[in-house]
Fold this protein.
Amino acid sequence: MDERGYFLAWQITLPGSAKRVWHLIELFGSAGNAWKATEKQLINIGGFAAGDARELVLRRRGVNPEAEMSLLEKKGITFLHFGDPGYPEILRNIFDPPPGLFVKGEIKQSDSQAVALVGSRKATRYGIAAAAKLAGELAGAGVTVVSGMARGIDTAAHRGALAAGGRTIAVLGCGLDVAYPRENAGLMEEIARSGAVVSEFPLGTPPEAWHFPVRNRIISGLSRGVVVVEAASRSGALITADFALDQGREVMAVPGNITSEVSRGPNRLIRQGARPVESAGDILEDLGLERLFGAEDREAPRINLSPEEEAVRKIISSEPAALDDLIDRSGLPAQKVLAALTFLEMKGVVRQLPGKLYTISPRR
């Protein structure tokens, strides 16, 4: 095998264990030498206990990198090892970069200017609308949006970027042939077509709880900055923010309702010095990207609307309208009008005022 094959072999044998793999490579001089190490060498040089060395040798025997590479090619998945020119440069410089990445889609050079939007799975309507709005603005400015494809804020961020015709990258805590959550299988394919879905976990790996804190370091590692939209006091989004600080990334937060549990995380970050974010302009300014992208000079990105969303949008103006009035005027079932309004809010086309009144967004 070549070095790429040995990196793939280690990625399959010790998934999500970058520190252990790098330690072995450092001790033996290369991924290939580490892979060929005998049980005795793993004990004497690697410092393994006898039982652990024996277990590792047995695990290696069950790995067939050539067969795995063939399977990846059939599924349209690329494996990028650390020495590959296509490996994201921004990710190389974190403390424990993944030795290899599985990629569905394409990682481009422009993705080095990326921002992560993360938050609660149990997001509020406000949080979902805020995440979609920020993602759409960032994508419209040419910035890649990174998130974890989880329910709630992550999903809204990916959808907001896609709706604006921009690029987005999803980082998974499972294999790329496992859609998690299941309802995001279609979203996963959309992201892969216009951006990338990545993971350090090999095919067939289920979404286990310990995988997600591990994958969070990749979300922040791929990004120039991390924006926490909503997060409870103990949240994976806050773990991502901690990784970002350790990696020298900027941490920002969307201010939230002081009575909401999912606003405690971002509000606490702001008290601790994170920049409060109200628009993509705040993010670009904080990262020094406003001159690079000149977002204020670009035309608003074209928004893709479903027939129901278009029908509802046409009857909304700058004058606030009540929900019941919109249902009557649209001629659509109430459930479809509510769904259309939710997605129009996510796409930044309309906004909801107190009292369930709706108006066109001033930016549209």
The CA atoms of residues 49 and 317 lie 71 Å apart. Confidence is low (pLDDT under 50) at residues 295-301.
